[in-house]
Give the backbone structure.
Amino acid sequence: MTLKELYEAKIDVRDSQIPDEWKESFNKFIFGSTCYADVDEDENVKEFIYYGSDFRTWYFRNQQAIERDIKIDNIVK
């Protein structure tokens, strides 16, 4: 899913769903916020999951740049 699709889906977002080129921006924004973890049977953290409302706030603040990148990616493909 693209970031726009995640935004429109209004779901909680896994760390692996954030593209590498946006991870630094997202991590700076989300620092100190509450999240939860997907754990295995031994209680080891597999991945962090962020609340959809926090993700949508970050997306809204970066919407122009994100959607510009999506358009560029679609043109290149």
